[in-house]
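User: I'm designing a mutation panel for Type II secretion system protein H and want to avoid disrupting the core. Could you give me a predicted structure to guide residue selection? Please restate the sequence first so the numbering is unambiguous.

Assistant: Good idea. Sequence first, for numbering, then the predicted structure tokens:
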Amino acid sequence: MSTRRRRGFTLVELAVVLAIAAVTMSVALPDLRQMIRSQQLKAAVGDLFGAIDLARTQAIARGRKVMLVPADSAAVDWSGGWVVFVDADGDRRPGGAEEVIMRHEPLAPGIAVDGAFSSQQGAAYLAYNSMGRSCSDTSSLAARWGTLSLAMGQQRRRIKINMLGRARICDPARDGASCGGDDP
């Protein structure tokens, strides 16, 4: 008879470990999904905020009007991505001869973007004049301010753009009245 001890796990030990792991995962999975959604929303807000800042700084650097518009063909759905470009012909769409500064891909599924601006004429857009101020697409002197709201499930973040074109991010659940409604 051999007195050597065998190394490894028995089938019963392995089944117990797998059962404990399955219970632990079933408890942790909803929290993991919520964390992933929260990070996707945070990344989308950061990307859009960065594009706003890029449009503003490029308008100042180039001494020309720079636009930020939704990338979809109808120019209304921000969740489909966006484009920062120099709008030489004033049509609010990047054309063949116009310089595209940056293009962003569509957002993660489930992220909705709404906008409310002081001037809701035409398609959704942000324009910055050569002084870095937000303006209308037809006049560099007419101020245009408002809010872009991004939501995923119950979570919501807002990017508020003031009359001077400066943007800030806020969380309505945390910031209360200072991050009030979508109205400009």
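For picking mutation sites, this is relevant: The chain has a mean pLDDT of 86. The domain at 11-178 is CATH 3.55.40.10 (minor pseudopilin epsh fold).
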